[in-house]
Amino acid sequence: MPGTVVVGTQWGDEGKAKVVDLLSHSADVVVRYQGGHNAGHTVVANGKKFAFRLTPSGILYPNVTPVIGNGVVLDLATLFAEIEMLQENGIDTSRLMVGANAHLIMPYHQRLDVLAEKRRGDFAIGTTKNGIGPAYVDKVARDGLRVQDLLVPSRFRARLKAVLTEKNAVLTSVYGDEPFNEDELLALYLDDYAPRLAPYIGDSVAFVQRALRENKLVLFEGAQATFLDIDHGTYPFVTSSNPVAGAACAGAGVGPRDLTRIVGIAKAYVTRVGAGPFPSELKDDIGAGIVERGHEFGTVTGRRRRPGWFDAVMMRHAAQLNSLTELAIIKLDIFDPLPTLKVCVAYEIDGQRVEHLPAFQDQLERAVPLYEELPGWQSDTTGVRSFAELPENARRYVHFLAEQSGVEVSMLGVGPGRDEIIPMPAFTGPSAGAPA
Hints:
32% of the residues lie in helices and 20% in strands. The strands form 5 sheets. The protein has a 10-stranded mixed beta sheet, sandwiched between helices. Strands 14, 16, 17 and 18 form a 4-stranded mixed beta sheet that branches. A two-stranded antiparallel sheet has the order 3-4. It is globular, with a radius of gyration of 22 Å. The relative contact order is 0.15.
């Protein structure tokens, strides 16, 4: 059976975990393919909130084998905390598989992340200081330690010794900080972490490929989102990996033809955390209301998210980058009280109307949003369970987003719970102007 990728189409926090959780009902395998514990995925199941930073969202279903792929960088303390939380809630974690080639986030990565951000001062990127970037740097520099190294103590010792010599030199000479003790790290990782992780380690590539050959439903779940992609995002205010759908192939170890369903996730508006260009940003009372009603604070950092109107220019670009086959729009209910809505349909850059995302960031920073106004519906949508029951102006808004994006809308979210997703009649394109 073809694989399905669930990908964020904005700057993250779109609700990917909610959609993965919904699709996991009929899935066999759910694979996390990149990123680290800098992203929080929240699922509300049976009235209880679960916040996942590493564990694939599908673990809440007993029919699912959750897999952490080789493209992930892994903080073991965070993983073990999640496993303990799940076990305390009666969730079987023995099904979890961790790819043998996934790289480890070490304590020195986290400290270097903190020190580097502090050193940048006014030019700080706004990282979560969880060591994600430094771990990916070591991976590319071939200085990384992998999950499988924990199974061979002699190799782990040798590699740690070589790497730690350099890291301690940087910590002491560049930052004036304390060095790490090699023996303490060895005791933590080989005596404590290795025995606890060993039952979960496996050949994730062979497992996922076999599941696809056996016609099983495999979901691929990324962290962050399209415009935080290291190659395609608003650099340098990006993450250290590739969240786009195509990266599922590299991170999980499957071929492009294994992916035929690409579900893009978007909020009915846009948010981002930290610095970086944001043409449709709202800095007024409307934006403050969106933050309050949408609880727009980071799952991991607690930082307030910056809100803005839906940006169709970004969405069209994300649709092309990811080859989206459908779109799920989440948090439509946050707009319930507003009398008027706006959608950014183009930019004005240096006096010219531009309907595509500019490749040059200085142009994006100068972009002035051009809006279309739509009437609001000013009624409660949280109890609605079918598209036909939505207020007429809500349906018009969703049709307009589909038309502007050029992607079929297949799901609508009107609340945080599993049962607050509305399946959609298929529609897209220029004929999508009238409500169903």
